[in-house]
Amino acid sequence: MQAPANRHHEDDNKINLSYTETEKVALLIATFNDLFETTENTVLISGTDEPLYLPATNSEERHRIIFAHGFFASALHELSHLLVAGVERRQLEDYGYWYKPDGRTKLEQIAFEQVEIKPQAMEWVLSAACDHRFHFSADNLNGDSAISDEFKENVRRQAINYIKDAPSTRMLQLVTRLSYVFNQPYPDIKEF
Q1: Average pLDDT over all residues of the chain
Q2: Structure confidence at residue 45 (pLDDT)
Q3: 158 neighbors 117 (Cβ within 8 angstroms)
Q4: By the 8 A CB rule, do 24 and 130 touch?
């Protein structure tokens, strides 16, 4: 894929690359697949419906991370789940995670937030590496509760911990490569 034209800020010498959503998605897919298709037997795929992780089977040679509707943020979120899932979970559909669809009660939302701290923190780190705005997600538009301040703070602290001490070589490789591809410095704790 050809990168867009470089643009210099008038007030400094830093190059700013402006990408369309489609270009960002194509770069993300190419970058991820280049890093992990062979080493992790895993590919990132743009889907047309809900996101889904499917482990390799007898009929499907590769693990597949399918993100929703070609959305860049969906791809980052699904990649974050991969990066926090251990080896055993990567053998299960959707990593074996509990999920209650939109319309959760307040208690169900609290349970959802507990399992989403690490993935959303990882998504925030990936977003910073790609110069993409991160949004907290309650994923509960029809439910009776919104994102709690406690959840936001827990996600922020976890993101800082990921920057201070990368939990895996895979995370370090992907964040480093995305920072390079999207012409960004490696994320710094001051960004969170």
Answers
A1: 87
A2: 97
A3: yes
A4: yes
